[in-house]
Specification:
The structure is a single chain. Helix content is about 40%, strand content about 20%. The protein is an alpha/beta fold. The protein folds into three domains: about 5-155, Alpha-D-Glucose-1,6-Bisphosphate, Chain A, domain 3 (3-Layer(aba) Sandwich), CATH 3.40.120; about 160-390, Alpha-D-Glucose-1,6-Bisphosphate, Chain A, domain 3; about 395-509, TATA-Binding Protein. Strands 5-4-3-1-2-6 form a six-stranded mixed beta sheet. A six-stranded antiparallel beta sheet has the order 16-17-18-19-15-20. Strand 11 (about 290-295), helix 10 (about 300-310) and strand 12 (about 315) form a beta-alpha-beta unit. 6-O-phosphono-alpha-D-glucopyranose binds near residues 343, 345 and 462. InterPro entries: A-D-PHexomutase_a/b/a-I, A-D-PHexomutase_a/b/a-I/II/III, A-D-PHexomutase_a/b/a-II, A-D-PHexomutase_a/b/a-III, Alpha-D-phosphohexomutase_SF, Phosphoglucosamine_mutase. Its EC number is 5.4.2.2.
């Protein structure tokens, strides 16, 4: 029997999170229903065209292609490690077609092998090879690829396998009870992304009531809210649904389900620092003393909570889910035990889940807690979760400003926005060193973080954009303004940096 490596493919119609505003600007404000339908038709056409082109390319190279249809990004990685020959798993590689947080007309490919998602070096290699193939491309090679694709492409419902694994994990945690969530009312908000499966395929088989779940149908135009657990409108929507349905818990996903957050029955949001605190509490119960790796934007209160209340170690690293995951893996390799890498964005990965950042798996860990509490006779719905974050100090004020660098400004003097951003940061660092009211964070992996006026600020370069995000947390608005003024004074000599939002904030007070 001949063997050919197999690649699975999945598509998400479109994703756009932070850049949603830009997309809206690009869309004609007088757009009618017919325009919307046309936009949707084109968007669907685009992803299907990309999927078919990728399938042809892979089949043309002599590999088997399996199409999964709509799936989540973490499920795609999972298909490289799942042992299920009926579903043609494990596959040798998988490709997610998604626009991630970019506008819907900017779909891209995410590549996975059983070692995880490919990083920059591998992607560069793929692009160079692709350019080479493109240069030697002929009509005959296209016809050959089309012929091979038409005979080799298979379709598999992999999401069925993936969701049954999630269901099995919760049942196991509850002592192999078939319906450990019986009687719980849990609403899901998929924000019209790909996470709608969680209600019918995970929660309902576990016995939960899911009525009132919303925006489960994929729609790349996101007609209700941006699927993003950091977005205020998104959190408001799931909170409202929890109230309207008198639910025990609300669960919200980002578009491709690698991020998530929750809301308890009293409307308390379990996202950002609170979700990290909750996950840390769960993980530190299982692995006392372990190191929790987080992104740079996490609060000082979180460090105190992890270290003083939970007895763990908080390693505040850089922004970026791949950065925190890779750092946790590195710590383990040098003998420092770490079981959780998590970002305020809602990306979170556990060692026990092969460091896969899976929003659905994070929520499974919360469900395990609910189910095992119920199994051991503890009532009170989602209170068991809120009790776990008891003692987390939270700032009265937490704000974020995204200060844009105008790349065409003459002050860049032909240099890159990164060089310009670094120059701003260097100057802020120097100013901070000479300000007796500010203390630079002794250990810091990106940007400039300083404490003062009872709070802190962090100015850093965005991972992707010509932007310097500024986070400020403080015990009062006055203190936040003082921190804001310190930053504003330092950046005012950089005319290509648009600090107007920060300026407005300090003036308003
Ligand atoms: O640096 P920023 O612009 O705030 O963006 C940072 C974020 O970029 C993407 O969305 C990544 O998926 C996140 O892991 C990361 O946190």
């Amino acid at each position: 029997m001949s063997f050919s490596p197999s690649i699975s493919l999945s598509i998400i119609l479109c994703v756009c999170e932070r850049r949603e505003e830009k997309r809206r600007e690009e869309t004609d404000p007088s757009c009618c229903c017919a325009c919307e339908r046309e936009t949707k038709r084109r968007q669907t056409y685009r992803v299907v065209a990309v999927r078919d082109a990728v399938s042809r390319g892979i089949a043309g190279a002599g590999l088997d292609v399996i199409q999964y249809g709509l799936a989540s990004t973490p499920a795609m990685f999972n298909s490289t490690i799942t042992e299920d020959h009926d579903f043609l798993c494990p596959v040798d590689g998988s490709i997610m077609i998604t626009a991630s947080h970019l506008p819907y007309n900017r779909n891209g490919l995410k590549f996975f092998t059983n070692a995880g998602g490919l990083g920059k070096a591998d992607i560069k290699d793929i692009l160079e090879r692709a350019a080479n193939i493109y240069n030697n491309f002929t009509i005959e090679s296209l016809k050959d690829a089309e012929r091979k694709a038409s005979s080799s492409v298979k379709r598999v419902d992999y999401m069925g396998v993936y969701t049954s694994d999630l269901v099995a994990a919760v049942r196991k945690a509850a002592g192999n009870i078939e319906k450990p969530l019986e009687g719980f009312h849990i609403v899901v908000d998929a924000g019209n992304g790909a996470g709608g499966f969680f209600a019918a395929k995970v929660l309902e088989p576990l016995g939960a009531i899911t009525t009132g779940s919303q925006f489960l149908e994929p729609d790349g135009l996101f007609p209700n809210h941006i699927p993003n657990p950091e977005d205020k409108a998104a959190m408001k929507a799931i909170t409202q649904s929890v109230f309207d349905n008198k639910a025990d818990l609300g669960i919200i996903f980002d578009t491709d389900v690698d991020r998530s957050a929750a809301v308890d029955s009293s409307g308390r949001e379990l996202n950002r620092n609170r979700l990290i605190a909750l996950m840390s509490a769960i993980v530190l119960e299982e692995h006392p003393g372990t190191t929790i790796v987080t992104d740079s934007v996490t609060s000082d209160g979180l460090t105190t909570f992890i270290e003083k209340k939970l007895g763990g170690k908080h390693h505040r690293f850089k922004r970026g889910y791949k950065n925190v995951i890779d750092e946790a893996i590195r710590l383990n390799s040098v003998g420092e035990e770490s079981h959780l890498a998590i970002e305020t964005s809602g990306h979170g990965a556990l060692k026990e889940n092969r460091w896969l950042d899976d929003g659905a798996y994070l929520m499974v860990k919360l469900l395990n807690k609910l189910a095992s509490a119920r199994a051991s006779g503890v009532g009170g719905g989602s209170k068991v979760l809120i009790d776990l974050v008891d003692g987390l100090e939270e700032p009265a004020v937490a704000v974020e400003f995204r200060l844009k660098i105008d790349q065409s400004h003459p002050d860049l003097k032909g240099g890159s926005f990164r060089d310009y951003g670094e120059a701003v940061l260097k100057h802020l660092e120097n100013v901070t060193d000479t300000d007796p009211k500010l203390q630079k964070a002794p250990v810091n992996y990106e940007g400039v973080r300083a404490s003062g006026y009872g709070g802190w600020f962090l100015l850093r370069l965005s991972l992707h954009d010509p932007v310097l995000p500024l986070n400020i947390e403080a015990p009062s608005n006055d203190d936040a303004v003082k921190l804001g003024l310190a930053v504003l004074a330092a950046v005012k000599g950089f005319p290509a940096l648009d600090a107007s939002a920060l300026d407005k904030f300090v003036r308003a007070s």
